[in-house]
Design goal:
There is one protein chain. By secondary structure, the protein is an alpha/beta fold. The chain has nine helices and seven strands; from the N terminus they run E-H-H-E-H-E-H-E-H-E-E-E-H-H-H-H. Strands 4-3-2-1-5-6-7 form a seven-stranded mixed beta sheet. Helix 8 (184-197) crosses helix 9 (199-208). It is globular.
């Protein structure tokens, strides 16, 4: 998993509350188990018109937000179904951080497991960042995970909290597989000893495989 340390990028305002995962990536595109290729369908039904043309009113179809790496939103982002394709689509588009007042629990967990940093802030702080994110080319903010700090375009800083384990995983690029592989020497040692103690298990497995 890609590490997340410090990110400076364009922040796009997506200020609606209760944006569900079907809006983030509609169900008809969930035909893949790959984590790549879904960015073109991110927010598909509001990003494109019925004839497939770009909706000029949608923020990610306008410059400089086409290259946004940060979303600023409000309440209950990622509600609805538990589809992991939602954080996949965001990441594939280029979004690495979503800042909002609150997030749906499953979406929140899935995002961290896929290298996205989600930051919860009070309504007053979100209002400042939504205002910043409407500054076009100047809508650039910095997210410093190590120091748990957001720097606004005017230089003001906003502190944020994060679970220490999630922070450790993002800073070191560790998903569930990466965390398991950190214990590979111990796993190998166990398997060597177990193979000697219970060889019939491994013989049967080899024969079946």
């Amino acid at each position: 998993m890609e590490k997340f340390e410090t990110l400076t990028g364009i922040a796009a305002p997506v200020g609606d509350a209760n944006i569900d995962t079907d809006r983030i990536i509609p169900a008809r595109f969930l035909k893949t188990i790959k984590r790549t290729g879904l960015g073109k369908h991110l927010f598909n039904d509001v990003r494109y018109t019925s004839d497939g043309a770009e909706n000029p009113n949608f923020v990610l179809n306008r410059e400089p937000y086409r290259k946004a790496e940060i979303l600023v939103t409000t309440e209950n982002f990622g509600c609805g179904s538990s589809r992991e394709h939602a954080p996949w689509a965001l990441h594939d588009f280029g979004i690495r951080c979503v800042i909002g007042e609150s997030f749906a629990d499953i979406f929140y967990n899935n995002s961290f497991k896929n290298g996205l940093l989600l930051i919860k802030l009070p309504k007053a702080e979100i209002a400042k960042l939504l205002e910043d994110s409407q500054l076009g080319q100047n809508a650039r903010i910095t997210v410093d995970l190590e120091n748990q700090q957001i720097t606004r375009p005017n230089g003001e800083t906003i502190a944020f909290g994060i679970d220490p384990f999630r922070k450790h995983c993002l800073l070191n690029g560790l998903d569930d597989i990466g965390l398991t592989l950190k214990h590979k020497p111990k796993i190998d040692t166990f398997e060597e000893r177990d193979r000697l103690a219970r060889p019939w298990l491994y013989t049967a497995q080899t024969a079946a495989g």
